Each structure stands twice: as C-alpha cells, then as structure tokens.
C-alpha cells in the first residue's frame, strides 16, 4: 500500500535519519558529472561558491538535519526547517548542538524570514512532495525573495512528467513522488532572476543528472540570483 509523504516520515523518521547520515542511498548511477559519484562533492561545490560563515537555509532538512549539522560544524551560519515534527525531533535528539537551528516549517506557506536573509539556500529532493502550482507560484519565488542579491540556490528534484509510485527497499514501502522536467524548473528560475552556474575547473555545474538507488532520475542545479535580487 502506498502511503503519503507525511505518513511516511511519521513512521520512518528514525530510519530515514540513519539512511541519510550513512549515505545509504547515495550510490548514484548514470551520473552526468564524474564528481556526482561522491554526494559530499555537492556540499563541497556549494562551499566553493560562498564565503566561510555565510548564512544558509536548508529548506526541507529532513529527519536528522544532516546537512544543517555538517555546515554548522564547518562554521557556516546554517539553519533548517522541515514540515515533519518527527523529523525535527530526531534532528534535535541526534544533534543537540543545533537544536536551536532547526524548526518545523512548511514550504506550502511563506518562508518565515525577511527579504534578503540568506547567502545560500539548499533544497534537496523536497519539491517532489509539493503540488506543482505551489512550487511554481510560491516555493521558488520564496527562495528568490529570501536570498540576497548574488545568493546561491542549490536545487535537486526528481525528473520526469506526472507522478510516480515506486517501492523503496530501504523502508519496505511504496512511495509516491511528483516529477518535474528540468525545462519547466529552469524556465521558472530564469523568470525569477536566477542564472545557472556552469562548470568551472571541473567543479559541479550546469544542469546535472543522476539516478538514485530506488531508482529514480534526479536533476541538480546551482543557480545564482542576479545582483538586482528577485524579479
């Protein structure tokens, strides 16, 4: 039986945190860039685009808030939120050092921060849980609004058309996801004032693809907001 994303995280928050922290589902295939063979290179690339100590937001940080913790440990002013109360509870239990940096928040609503609040925003495999019109009309514009001019968005999403239900062997359940084409996301980002960051000196860049262990194809982009801010 397929369960909703909300119910999935209620039931599997602890296991999800383990899978996430141990990079169990990070054995990517069909990679369009050699450095995608190591998921940590995604974070390394972001760190190469921002100054040390930069203020960041992980929008949909997941159970355990792994990336919030890793950025914070490396002296970045990182915070994160997630719609699942259980996910945040697990994060605070696993990493009490960042308990004050993670909170319950929903991308279906406005991000509760002022304009130009962040130097960078990461959103990895989250929009697959959100209705398409909300993503296009609210989520992506909110990233543009809360980023400072010149700020960086890291966006990862499942690629395709329509919706998909697939068995996830690491949890023993059927899971439901919404799929997005790279073209529709790139077009919306461009309209909001973002420009895709291209590959530089073998660093990750451009429009990149990989397949995860489920297996589902993903797209990854780094995009810089123009210096005039959101359009």
Task: Outline the structure in words.
The chain is globular. It has helices at 5-21, 40-49, 66-73, 85-94, 132-146, 182-191; strands at 2-3, 55-59, 77-82, 102-104, 118-124, 147-158, 163-168, 173-178, 194-196, 208-211, 217-225. Strands 2, 3, 4, 5, 6, 9, 10 and 11 form an eight-stranded mixed sheet that branches. The protein has 231 residues and is of the alpha/beta class. The chain has a single domain, classed as 3-Layer(aba) Sandwich (Rossmann fold).
How many extended strands? 11
Termini separation comes to 43 Å
CATH architecture classification: 3-Layer(aba) Sandwich
Biggest β-sheet description: 8 strands, mixed
Radius of gyration: 16 Å
CATH topology: Rossmann fold
* The top level CATH class name: Alpha Beta
Which labels suit this protein?
231 residues, alpha/beta, Rossmann fold, eight-stranded mixed sheet, three-stranded mixed sheet, 6 helices, 27% strand, globular
Show the helix and strand layout:
Layout: E1 2-3, H1 5-21, H2 40-49, E2 55-59, H3 66-73, E3 77-82, H4 85-94, E4 102-104, E5 118-124, H5 132-146, E6 147-158, E7 163-168, E8 173-178, H6 182-191, E9 194-196, E10 208-211, E11 217-225
Parallel strand pairs: 1-8, 2-3, 2-5, 3-4, 5-6
Antiparallel strand pairs: 6-11, 7-8, 9-11, 10-11
Helix pairs in contact: 1-4
Compose a concise summary of this entry.
It contains 6 helices and 11 strands. The protein has 231 residues and is of the alpha/beta class. It has a single domain (2-225), classed as Rossmann fold.
């Amino acid at each position: 039986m397929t369960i909703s994303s909300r119910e999935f995280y209620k039931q599997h928050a602890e296991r999800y945190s383990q899978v996430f922290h141990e990079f169990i589902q990070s054995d990517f295939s069909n990679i369009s860039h050699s450095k995608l063979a190591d998921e940590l290179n995604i974070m390394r690339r972001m760190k190469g685009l921002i100054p040390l100590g930069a203020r960041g937001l992980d929008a949909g940080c997941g159970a355990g808030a792994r990336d919030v913790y890793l950025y914070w440990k490396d002296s970045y002013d990182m915070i994160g939120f997630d719609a699942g109360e259980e996910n945040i509870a697990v994060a605070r239990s696993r990493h009490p050092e960042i308990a004050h940096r993670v909170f319950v928040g929903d991308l279906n609503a406005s991000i509760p921060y002022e304009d130009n609040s962040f130097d960078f925003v990461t959103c990895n495999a989250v929009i697959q849980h959100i209705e398409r019109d909300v993503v296009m009309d609210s989520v992506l514009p909110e990233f543009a609004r809360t980023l400072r001019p010149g700020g960086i968005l890291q966006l990862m999403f499942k690629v395709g058309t329509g919706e998909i239900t697939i068995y996830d062997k690491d949890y023993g359940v059927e899971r439901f996801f919404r799929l997005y084409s790279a073209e529709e996301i790139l077009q919306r980002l461009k309209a909001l004032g973002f420009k895709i960051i291209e590959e530089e000196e073998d660093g990750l860049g451009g429009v990149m693809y990989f397949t995860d262990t489920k297996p589902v194809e993903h797209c990854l982009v780094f995009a810089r907001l123009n210096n005039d801010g959101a359009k």
